[in-house]
Amino acid sequence: MSWSNLHSHCFYCDGKFEPERYIRRAIDMKVFSYGFSSHAPVPFECGWSMRSQDTLNYVNEISILKQKYADQIQVYTGMEVDYIPGVISVQHPSIRNLDLDYTIGSIHFIDQDRHGNPWEIDGKHSTFLHGLNTIFKNDIMQVVKRYFQLTRAMVREACPDIIGHLDKIKIQNRENKFYHEFSRWYQYEIMHTLEEIKASGAILEVNTRGIYKKKTVHTYPGRWILDQVRKMKIPITLNSDAHHPEEIINCFEKAAYMLNEIGFKYVRVLVNGKWTDVELDPTGLKIPEYA
Ligand SMILES: [Zn+2]
Ligand SMILES: [Zn+2]
């Protein structure tokens, strides 16, 4: 048995080390398919995204490593691209021209403050509270609705291969500080968003980072959402969002156990460059013999 991880960061964005170090560790951890998904550049000051002048080096360096380790692991070049209307998306020429193997689309910014600075929702809680107050006048429901509206707009207008960490905004709602996920309005947002994802054919990511970083108890998205995903037969993939080589398959066994329990038997991953449904159990993925 083996694993796949297509959501990872290295020193081209906010990851810790050079790409090769992740590949070596992935081989040790019996990963057969590994993808880099550095944060795509954004045209404003941002502490965790790649610089636009580095994108070609990023693609070239990974392409050299693909060849170097071809007999031990399949390596893929992707990017985690924000969706900011009129600013950046997977459809932007700067992304399309790179000829990536795949893209992850994620929402990290949902609005701007009055000085035009984009407001990040998955950073510090104090940053969140500041924007909630100054941009949204403490109307949490509007913030969450805006987050899912943007997710749906991304799916409709610039759909990535993989939808990243669907309900990550929940890290700001620890211990149901602002609302309960069983609220009708919240469930409506989720269901409406899942319907659009289903119609698009995109793959929904099950992301373990919140668990091992102790920001959430559950995966992104959480259990009740995954029950719906299963019923709707939306394809899923399992990712760690690793920033450090030791995080590459963190919490995968636990997540795979939960996914099996919900009724998921397969995850969709890249095998020989093609999206393929492979069998999943808590010990790993059953890789096709031709891989
Ligand atoms: Zn992200
Ligand atoms: Zn990420």
TrEMBL record:
The keyword Amino-acid biosynthesis is assigned to this record: yes
This enzyme's EC code(s): 3.1.3.15
Catalysed reaction equations from the record: L-histidinol phosphate + H2O = L-histidinol + phosphate
Keywords: Amino-acid biosynthesis, Histidine biosynthesis, Hydrolase
Ranges of residues in domain PHP: 6-208
Metabolic or biological pathway, per its Swiss-Prot or TrEMBL entry: Amino-acid biosynthesis; L-histidine biosynthesis; L-histidine from 5-phospho-alpha-D-ribose 1-diphosphate: step 8/9
Pfam families linked to this entry: PHP
InterPro entries reported in the protein's UniProt record: Histidinol_P_phosphatase_HisJ (IPR010140), PHP_dom (IPR004013), Pol/histidinol_Pase-like (IPR016195)
Family: Belongs to the PHP hydrolase family. HisK subfamily.
Protein name per its UniProtKB record: Histidinol-phosphatase
Native source organism of the sequence: Agaribacillus aureus
